[in-house]
Design brief:
Strand content of chain A: under 5%
Structural class of chain A: mainly alpha
Strand order of the largest sheet of chain A: 1-2
Radius of gyration of chain B: 18 Å
Distance between the termini of chain A: 66 Å
Strand content of chain B: under 5%
Largest sheet of chain A: 2 strands, antiparallel
Distance between the termini of chain B: 50 Å
Number of helices of chain B: 6
Number of strands of chain A: 4
Helix content of chain B: over 70%
Radius of gyration of chain A: 20 Å
Helix content of chain A: 55-70%
Number of helices of chain A: 8
Largest interface: A-B, 25 and 23 residues
Oligomer: heterodimer
Order of helices and strands of chain B: HHHHHH
Chain lengths: 276, 145
C-alpha cells in the first residue's frame, strides 16, 4: 500500500542550519507546533490555577524550551568536527530530548488536571515526579555546559576569539547560574518570597510586582547564552582582538553580577520592578 | 444480540489491531493486513448494520450540536458512533506505521503517536504530522528510495 498523495512531492530540500543538530531542532519544531493546541486552549479554557489561566505555564515552557533547543541547534555548528556523530554524544542528545518531552508532558498534564507540577507534594506520586523532573531539568540544562566546554576547546570553530569566548561563557553561565537560581527556587515552597501577596504582577512575564520572585534570576541566568554572545559579537566588531577579549570577560562578570543582584533581591523579598 | 454485547466484543477486536501495530516491526505486512484491512472492515460492516437498525428510530440530526447530542441518546446509534471511532482510529494508526516505515521514522517515535491516536484519535494524528514535519525540515537531505 502506498500513499503517493501524501508523500513530499520533491526530494528533501537542501540542508538548513537546523541540520547541524537535527534531533534538537526537530524537538524544537514539534514543541513550537504543539503551541497550535495549547494557544487555543489558553484562549478557550476558563479554568484558573493560582489566579492564572491553567495554560499560561505550559505555553511559557513550550516557548522557552523551543527557544533553548533552537539556540543549541544554532551553536551546534561551532562544535568540533564529528562531535555530533559520536555515540556518546548521540546518546546524551536523545536523553536531553527525552527529558524535555517528559517535562512538557508533566507540566501540560498538570495544567490539564488543574493542579501544580512544580512544588506539588500532594501525593507520593506527584512528589516523586517533581523530584524526577528536577533531575531531568538539570540534565537538559547540562547540554549547554557540554556545548560550552566543546566550543571553548574547539580552535577550528571559525569564530573570532572574543565571539567564541562569549559563546562558551554564555553557555557555561547558563548552566551554572540556572542550576543555582532554579535549585534555590525548587527548595522554596513556591515562586514568591515575602508578603503581602495580592497577585500584582508585571505584564507578559508575570513576575511579582510586590514581593521577591526567584523566576527573575532564573530567567536572566538561563538567557546568558543569548546576552553574552551578543555582547561578544558587538565587542568583536567594535574592538581590536585583545580589547574584545577583555570586554567579553568584563561583560560576563557584569552579567553574572546582575543575575546575582536579581537573586539577592528576590531572597530579600523585593520585586524586580515594584508596582503601585 | 444487545448493544452491550456488541460493545464488549468491539473493544478487544480494536485492541488486537493496536497490538498488531505496536508490534508491527516484527511482521510489517501482517500488521497492515490486520490493522488497515481486516479489523477496520469488520468494524465498518458492523457500523453499517447498526445504522440500518438504529437510524430510522433515532432522535436528532446533523444540523445542530443539540441534535447531534440527541442522536447519541439511542444505544444503537451511540454504539455505531463508537465503532466509527474504533474503525477509523486503527486505520489511521496503520497509516502512521506504514508512512513511518516508508520514510525511515523510528518505531520508538511512532509508539507515542499510536498511544495518543488510540486514546484521542486526532491528537495522535496531529502529533505524527508534527514529528513528520520536524524531520522533514531538521534532517539533512537523504537519497530518495
Amino acid at each position: 500500500m502506498t500513499d503517493a498523495a501524501y508523500s513530499p512531492a520533491h526530494p528533501r530540500r537542501h540542508a538548513s542550519w537546523l541540520s547541524a543538530e537535527p534531533r534538537l531542532a526537530a524537538t524544537g519544531i514539534v514543541l513550537a507546533l504543539s503551541l497550535a493546541a495549547t494557544l487555543p486552549a489558553l484562549m478557550l479554557d476558563t479554568r484558573l490555577f493560582q489566579g492564572e489561566n491553567v495554560w499560561i505555564k505550559p505555553v511559557k515552557f513550550q516557548v522557552a524550551l523551543a527557544v533553548y533547543l533552537f539556540t543549541l541547534t544554532f551553536f551546534a555548528r561551532f562544535l568540533p568536527e564529528g562531535m555530533t556523530a559520536r555515540r556518546t554524544y548521540r546518546a546524551f542528545s536523545w536523553l536531553v530530548v527525552f527529558a524535555i518531552v517528559a517535562e512538557m508532558v508533566w507540566i501540560g498534564g498538570a495544567a490539564m488536571l488543574q493542579t501544580a507540577s512544580h512544588f506539588n507534594t500532594s501525593s507520593p506520586l506527584m512528589e516523586a515526579l517533581y523530584g524526577l523532573m528536577g533531575v531531568f531539568a538539570v540534565t537538559l540544562t547540562a547540554m549547554s555546559l557540554v556545548y560550552a566546554i566543546a566550543i571553548w576547546r574547539n580552535p577550528a570553530s571559525g569564530l573570532a576569539p572574543a565571539t567564541r569566548l562569549s559563546i562558551a561563557l554564555g553557555l557555561g553561565l547558563t548552566f551554572v547560574l540556572t542550576v543555582i537560581a532554579a535549585g534555590t527556587l525548587s527548595m522554596q515552597g513556591g515562586h514568591f518570597i515575602g508578603t503581602p501577596q495580592t497577585g500584582a504582577a508585571l505584564p507578559l512575564m508575570g513576575w511579582s510586582g510586590e514581593v521577591g520572585d526567584l523566576r527573575v534570576a532564573h530567567f536572566f541566568a538561563t538567557h546568558a547564552l543569548h546576552f553574552l554572545p551578543l555582547a561578544g559579537l558587538a565587542a568583536t566588531w567594535a574592538l581590536p582582538q585583545r580589547a574584545a577579549l577583555r570586554a567579553t570577560w568584563a561583560a560576563s562578570l557584569a552579567f553574572t553580577a546582575f543575575v546575582a543582584f536579581t537573586y539577592a533581591q528576590a531572597l530579600m523579598g523585593l520585586p524586580l520592578i515594584p508596582l503601585g | 444480540m444487545t448493544p452491550e454485547t456488541l460493545f464488549s466484543l468491539s473493544g478487544p477486536l480494536a485492541m488486537l489491531g493496536w497490538l498488531a501495530l505496536a508490534l508491527s516491526p516484527l511482521a510489517p505486512r501482517a500488521a497492515q493486513w490486520v490493522s488497515a484491512l481486516v479489523i477496520p472492515a469488520l468494524l465498518s460492516v458492523a457500523y453499517a448494520a447498526l445504522i440500518l437498525i438504529g437510524w430510522p428510530s433515532a432522535e436528532g440530526g446533523f444540523d445542530s450540536l443539540a441534535n447531534v447530542m440527541a442522536l447519541f441518546t439511542s444505544p444503537w446509534v451511540a454504539l455505531a458512533g463508537w465503532l466509527h471511532y474504533l474503525a477509523f482510529d486503527v486505520f489511521v494508526g496503520a497509516w502512521e506505521v506504514r508512512t513511518a516505515r516508508r520514510e525511515g521514522i523510528a518505531h520508538a517515535l511512532v509508539l507515542p503517536c499510536l498511544l495518543l491516536t488510540f486514546l484521542f484519535g486526532p491528537a495522535g494524528f496531529a502529533l505524527f504530522l508534527a514529528i513528520r514535519a520536524a524531520r522533514h525540515f531538521a534532517f539533512p537531505p537523504q537519497q530518495e528510495a
